[in-house]
Design brief:
seven-stranded mixed beta sheet, BirA Bifunctional Protein, domain 2, single chain, binds 3,4-dihydroxyphenylalanine, 352 residues, alpha+beta, two-stranded antiparallel ribbon
């Protein structure tokens, strides 16, 4: 290889290197020129073909070529590294520009779901576990076990969504009209599962049961053919009306704040004795005064209900309560019409 050839080699190598734009072609260039089997190595190998006198000068020239190409390579590599790794690719982004508002487009839980979860959370802190039961029920759990015998006015076919012939007691299927059905189902299941039962049970029961209920009511501002209730049941030894009142007051404070009050008014339910109507005195909004609001029913579980589910009322006593979730949600969020909760108009739902 002549000196002239070495000059040409250097020139073409540098020109080629300047055209390299990515890591892969840079590596290909390295292999071609300064790699172990590259052209610089070949030029060095050709030293033996050079006339003896010229060899030192030739050797120096090849070494100079190797150094030049190596440092040109290093420089190009760091240049490319700086553009492909260090700096972001693509268009420049103004990090200070306000982002697009997503909250309008992102979905969230329906107000009823939120209130239901809040209730489960508050009662959960008081030791109540969540239980569920079927919405397609039978007469037995909706009525018979709850001390509502055949012929009772609550069984009127016009007041219930029967699926089967309503005279077929107790197997006729129906959409449940109350979550009290879950009381009966939970008690039966616990009696069945008790290992060392005393009076039917081997331990206390403390559950709440939120869920849908159905009644063929004419729809208006306060009625719907479907709504939600939450049921509570506490069975233990020597449970008293004082425990019921205390539990409801604790709930009212936890959910509506320390100024909330409760009031129990005597009434009648077939499945409790004594029975009471539950009122809450709450401030719906900061700019409003404290007001009484009727919420639901409660009482001491009737001995007939305990017996029907296999629990001995001489050993165990309990209280139960049930109230409407819509009523609570409407109270808490000042919603004037129950239909607004089910129309799913986003303009309304987004305000809650
Ligand atoms: N089930 C009743 C209703 O739908 C509400 C109720 C009243 C539930 C008293 C109870 C209770 O557990 O003890 O109107």
């Amino acid at each position: 290889m002549s000196f002239g050839t070495l000059d040409q080699l250097q020139e073409s190598a540098l020109a080629k290197l300047a055209a390299v734009t990515d890591a892969a072609s840079l590596e290909a260039w390295r292999v071609e020129f300064i790699g172990a089997k590259g052209k610089v190595k070949a030029a060095l190998g050709a030293t033996k073909d050079i006339p003896k006198d010229d060899r030192p000068a030739y050797g120096q020239r090849v070494n100079a070529l190797a150094t030049t190409l190596q440092s040109a390579f290093d420089a190009r590599q760091s240049e490319l590294g700086a553009t492909t790794q260090g700096k972001p690719q693509g268009p420049r982004i103004d990090m200070t520009e306000p982002g697009e508002l997503l909250s309008e487009a992102v979905g969230r839980q329906h107000i009823i779901t939120r209130v239901r979860n809040e209730l489960c959370e508050v009662f959960g802190r008081m030791g109540f576990e969540v239980a569920t039961g079927p919405e397609l029920e039978d007469d037995e759990h909706n009525f018979v076990k709850l001390n509502i015998p055949a012929g009772h006015p609550a069984r009127e076919p016009n007041d219930n969504f029967y699926i089967d012939d309503p005279t077929k007691v107790p197997q006729a299927r129906m959409l449940r009209s109350q979550t009290s059905t879950v009381q009966a189902r939970v008690m039966q299941a616990r009696v069945k599962a008790s290992k060392n039962p005393v009076g039917g049970l081997d331990s206390s029961i403390k559950i709440i049961a939120p869920g849908r209920v159905y009644r063929p009511d004419t729809v208006d501002a306060t009625h719907s053919f479907m709504f939600h209730q939450i049921e509570g049941l506490y069975i233990d030894r020597q449970v008293s009306m004082a425990d019921l009142k205390n539990t409801l007051l604790q709930f009212a404070h936890a959910y509506f704040g320390p100024e909330a009050l409760i009031r129990l008014r005597p009434t009648f339910f077939p499945f409790t004795e004594p029975s009471a109507e539950l009122d809450l005195r709450i401030r719906l909004r900061e700019d409003q005064p404290l007001r009484w609001m009727e919420l639901g029913g409660c009482g001491m579980v009737h001995p007939n209900v305990l017996k029907a589910c296999g629990v001995d009322p001489e050993v165990w006593t309990g209280f139960a309560f049930g109230f409407g979730i819509e009523r609570l949600a409407m109270g808490k969020y000042a919603v004037p019409d129950i239909r607004m909760l089910f129309e799913n108009d986003l303009r309304f739902l987004r305000q809650l």
